[in-house]
Amino acid sequence: MAKTVRSKKRHGFFETLWRYKWLYLMLVPVVVYFLLFRYLPMYGLTIAFEDYNIFHSLFNQKFVGLKVFKKVFANINFWASIKNTLFLNLMTLVVNFPLTIIVSLILNEIRSAKFKRVTQSVLYLPHFISWVVVAGIATNLFSTNGGTINNIITSLGGEAKSFYGNTYWWTVMYIALQIWKEIGWGTIIYLAALTGVDEQLYEAAYLDGATRFQRIIHITLPMIKSVVVVMLILSISRMMSIGLDAPLLLGNTAVMSVSEVISTYVYRLGIVKADYPQSTAIGLFQSVVNIIVLLLADRFAKAIGEGGIL
Q: What's the whole-number average pLDDT of the chain?
């Protein structure tokens, strides 16, 4: 009897596999991609525990334990890059996260479908622009000599600002460009969540005399609260990660004290100085911290009554 059940289950599995063969076939490139470019390269993490020699095989390296990590942690530049990474990410999150929600709510209130589509397209467009192009635009806008922003300031009787030479104004410029580039893309998930809000709730609130602002506060925001919490957890979990393009292209030696983040520090170690063990150790440390922060943020969300993501 047991053999009969097993054969039926086996037959059912292959029958299902054959029935949806084209869907599984489309899944093959994705699986191959993750195996080749995500999982197999993980073996390279062993470099962080070895006295790596580029002329020897990856399987024939001298194991040194935590010596590389001790060297990394003893470097003051490493801790400075962590501080700058956390500072830029935190400031961007504090400004960009609520603005994204506000923009989503504004877009949701637009009644003209055509105007709404055009507005969304205009907001989404900067996300697809390369940081190389954005850096060029920033130079034309924020340059001390001939920059559009400084030309406007001086024409109004003000004093030109050194956006590229002053750490404060460089931070303002960096955050402003991050918001301009990503705020439209960040509204996608919130707008998707807003489509699931029951219109009858708005109608009932309208009949009860609630204003548009009151409907947003008492209906819209509570209905998308779980999505907001999930997005906040994901954003917090990336506090130790920052893209290489923006800090590298916008930064310079004058603002190195704030523009030198983990990604640029690893770039200078691994690519410029060819110190592969240290750069690998920093990457591993960064990933572990991100996972820990993700777990803590998820636990905190569950502690306050939200679902979390795990």
A: 87
